[in-house]
Amino acid sequence: MSYGNQPGGYGPPQGGYGPPGGYGTPPGGGYDPYGYGAPPPRGNNGMAIAALIMGIAGLFVCGVTSIVGIVLGHISLGQIKRTGEEGRGMAIAGLVLSYFGVACWLIVLVIWLVAIGVLAGSATYGY
Predict the structure, then answer these.
(1) What parts of the sequence cross the membrane (predicted)?
(2) Is the distance from CB of 74 to CB of 94 less than 8 angstroms?
(3) In this structure, are residues 93 and 72 in contact, taking their beta carbons and an 8 Å threshold?
(4) Contacts of 74 (CB under 8 A, 6+ apart)
(5) Nearest-angstrom CA–CA distance, 121 and 127
(6) Confidence class of residue 38 from pLDDT cuts 50, 70 and 90?
(7) DSSP-derived 3-state class of residue 31
């Protein structure tokens, strides 16, 4: 038995389909081979950053900037709720520091005024 050239087998393909054609480039350029990708990062609210800075500074400059920090903190919380920006934690920290700064400086002011009053009262009686 010989396995040489056997008659009746399959011959080379006749006609058929050619190699697949290219798709070309879509209008506007190519596509992102990695899918849609991550969404762009949301930015921090600028007023929240300013509220935090004013709250920190208010602890050192007699609470004057703390009042600005309170206003900016409340405005930034409203903006963050409306727009979905980042920075809610900074706004809350700015509010807490600002309220704390105002409270501390008010306590210092009251103690100072009481001390001045006591000294002025004792000086008038000549004790």
Answers:
(1) 47-72, 92-120
(2) no
(3) no
(4) 95
(5) 10
(6) confident
(7) coil
- Measured CA to CA, the distance from residue 82 to residue 33 in angstroms comes to 34
- Beta bridge mates, 44: 86
CA distance 52 to 95: 7
The answer to whether residues 105 and 62 touch, using CB atoms and an 8 Å cutoff, is yes
Angle in degrees, 0-180, between the axes of helices 88-125 and 64-83, rounded to the nearest 10 = 160
Tell me the C-alpha distance between 44 and 74, whole Å: 15
Q: What's the CA gap between 92 and 22, in Å, rounded?
A: 56
8 Å CB contact between 85 and 45: yes
Predicted pLDDT of residue 62: 79
C-alpha 63/C-alpha 70 separation (Å) is 11
What the block records as the tokens of 19 is 């190699």
The answer to whether the CB of 63 falls within 8 A of the CB of 108 is: no
Q: Tell me the C-alpha distance between 50 and 80, whole Å.
A: 14
Instruction: Report how far apart the first and last C-alpha atoms of the chain are (Å, whole number).
Output: 140
User: What are the structure tokens assigned to 97, written together?
Assistant: 């520091």
